[in-house]
Write a structure and sequence with these properties.
alpha/beta; two-stranded parallel ribbon; Rossmann fold; globular; 229 residues; seven-stranded parallel beta sheet; 8 helices
């Protein structure tokens, strides 16, 4: 895969995850906890997590206790201030944005995710990995496609050293399945990628992606995910 180096960079890192309890975000957090490259995971959430072990059931409990920091935040405050919370401890160098809503809204799918990206950049995050959707393009007559396209453009303008953008088709969300994704049951399996696999591809990118801005197509993600099984 041209976007990825042959081997890992072998650099330990602290990561921050926006949308940490969502369909993809929870698996990003889980993968970062279970892996050896990430030494600390800051999970930003809108509400309290009573039991991280229930929210991230496949995460290693011993590693979770050592690595996971759950931070409840008012994302509107990030929009207003342009800054991440000041009490996060060690500053992250890698960010993951898995924010979104159903149905989509300008605030949840553009305003807040873009503010999160800009705040991460201001805090010194140099690598960002963004969940988008297939065919996202600003100016589209389809509102959701246009919104995510504008979001991609905004992230490209933030000048991250490394920016990975992931454009999946239908998502397998397990128990978080949304109505529109029910179509995956009547389309070829090649059109669908499980959120667990999407998370694995994003984390692999954090370890191996070259400098620059790269967009990962649905087909490319399926190929990478297959190689990781």
């Amino acid at each position: 895969m041209e976007h990825l180096n042959e081997t890992k960079q072998n650099e330990k890192f602290t990561a921050i995850v926006g949308g940490a309890t969502g369909a993809t975000g929870r698996w990003i957090v889980t993968g970062l906890i279970n892996g050896d490259d990430c030494v600390r995971v800051v999970a930003l959430t809108r509400s309290d997590i009573a039991s991280p072990a229930d929210t991230f059931p496949e995460a290693d409990k011993d590693k979770m206790a050592k690595k996971l920091v759950v931070k409840k935040v008012d994302f509107k405050s990030i929009v207003t201030s342009g800054e991440l919370p000041s009490d996060l401890g060690e500053k992250p160098s890698i960010g993951f944005c898995a924010m979104g809503s159903a149905p989509y809204t300008e605030e949840s799918d553009f305003t807040v995710p873009v503010a999160f990206g800009r705040a991460c950049k201001a805090a010194g995050v140099d690598s960002m990995f963004l969940v988008s959707a297939v065919n996202s393009k600003s100016g589209s007559c389809f509102g959701y496609v246009d919104t995510l396209g504008r979001r991609e453009d905004a992230y490209k303008g933030m000048d991250f050293k490394r920016l990975g953008i992931y454009q999946p088709g239908f998502l397998g969300r397990q128990e978080k399945m949304r109505f529109k994704e029910m179509f995956q049951y009547i389309v070829p399996s090649s059109w669908t990628i499980d959120t667990k696999d999407l998370a694995k591809v994003m984390i692999e990118s954090a370890n191996r992606m070259k400098d620059g801005h790269f967009t990962f197509t649905h087909k490319e993600m399926k190929t990478i995910a297959s190689s990781l099984h």
